[in-house]
Amino acid sequence: MRIVVDLNRCQGYAQCVPLAPEVLRLNGEEALMYDPNPDDSLRQQVLRAAASCPVQAIIVDRLDENGEKA
Amino acid sequence: MSTSALVASALDLVKEFKANGRIVIVGASLAGLRAAESLRDEGFNGELTIIGDEPHEPYDRPPLSKQVLKGWVPADHTVLPRLRKVEADWRLGVAATGLDRATKQVRLANGDQVPYDRLLIATGTRSRPWFNPKEAELEGVFTLRTSDDAARLQAALAAKPGRVLIVGAGFIGSEMASVCRELGLEVTVAERADAPLVGALGGVIGDIAAEMQRDHGVDLRTGVSVEALEGDAEGHVRHARLSDGTTLDVDVVVASLGSIRNTEWLEGAGLAAGFWGVGCDAGCRAFDVNGVVTDSVYVAGDIARAPHVLYNYQFLVLEHWDNAVIGGQVAAHNMVSLEPDRRPHLPLPAFWSGQFGVNIKGVGVAPFGDQIVITQGSVKDRRFAAVYGHQGRTVAAVTFNHGKWLEYYGALIERSAPFPPPPPGYDQAGDMTPIPARFPDPRVLTGVPDVVLTGHDPTERGAEFRPKKR
Q1: What is the ipTM of this complex?
Q2: How far apart are CA B36 and CA B49, in angstroms?
Q3: Checking phi first, is residue B301 left (phi over 0); if not, alpha (psi -120 to 50) or beta?
Q4: Nearest residue of B to residue A33 by CA position?
Q5: pTM score, whole prediction
Q6: Closest residue in B to A7 (Cα–Cα)
Q7: Per-residue model confidence as pLDDT tens digits over B18-47
Q8: CA neighbor of B272 nearest in space, from B121, B469, B127
Q9: Do A3 and B81 touch (CB under 8 A)?
Q10: Taking CB atoms and an 8 Å limit, are B81 and A27 in contact across chains?
Q11: Residues B317, B79, B322, CA angle at the centre, nearest 5°?
């Protein structure tokens, strides 16, 4: 799957980090680092992490692996 | 014809264009992709062609200098998410080499001609190469802009080189130095100015950035340039000669010298295109070389140069991530809309940079300011906010690990609040006296900053009249 985090919008609340620790990490106090193309098996975790973001900065692809609208 | 009949025929034109028009987007990165998605969202069902010189589908570049170099994320794993399905003819791996506005065709490197009714220019920038082409060919000499660049550099860093030399301490150079230290590599940063980040943030913040680098073990050398690179018998770089007479033993050299805007392919097209990008109005419509706005050519992303209301209507170029996203979306909207429905693209510039465990974020155009005041937090703890002013106005702000406050300062900038600004009433810094922000004299050669105010003339600063070649 594919994600991108709008790091202008991200304010380092880090609510997402414990929900998908393999995908989203903090580097220091508030700089978010993430895996933009995590394994599809992590989709549920990532969707939960995205939903938890207070500023909705995590953008998740709206397509499935066949390129169809998910 | 009555007025209502004219209106009806204009609406028919839009309907007809949305159904059967031909749009070509040149540039298949962030701005091009988001523009394509927006065109389909806006109900454009005509032919859409997307041309990109890289063979890859659109990917995100900011991770390349961070999590990719670090080896956490593979270089080909920053593919951008799609916001919707886009029916388009993707012409990837072939560069556009020319534009003929008379016949409305884009010429490609493989000889193909692609006709358009409306064109979006989103060709962005490339990295400025090492100035000596022979030395640039040495094994171990890199630049970083594309995912292929990142893959090669990451492999070189993973091979544990003895010393890495980074030439240029802008944001990308500083981020790469940070990654080198996180990987436990010895790294020297050579910067022509007196401190890192001075072009973007001035000397006061530059001094803080310099301290941060040194505290993390970077061998930072300022006020020097790298005059020559020398290779061994196998053609691998081994030495770098600095302007202060010293010679460094190095195994990897990264030239981080800013970017070059990809405008060469527009030569002879009669557009206001040049060193600083392609001049366009606030609605993303390109200007021709005489300053006349075009009807069918639009510009978005790093290459767009548009007048900005917040900065005395100077033309502003912005190599910022959200400028590509929003610029692409606004351009797309305006390409399929009638005059009363067109929208302006007047972003409040915003950026971020993660380095040495600190999240540096900014809003506004700092080099437009000449004074700075630390408003919140503590410089010593590297957790603070600072505000830039110009002639009594608040024009920009930067935060170190204090990003939550940026919105507050952004709102001040948007309404041209007084400078120094009213204290935020929380976490105030001790001394609120403005001091000179210490930006380098614009005539002094330093790295080209990624946000530049480029004057009031659509064609000045490098755009020049070149008669069409016959």
Answers
A1: 0.94
A2: 9
A3: left
A4: B67
A5: 0.94
A6: B352
A7: 999 999 999 999 999 999 999 999 999 999
A8: B121
A9: yes
A10: no
A11: 25
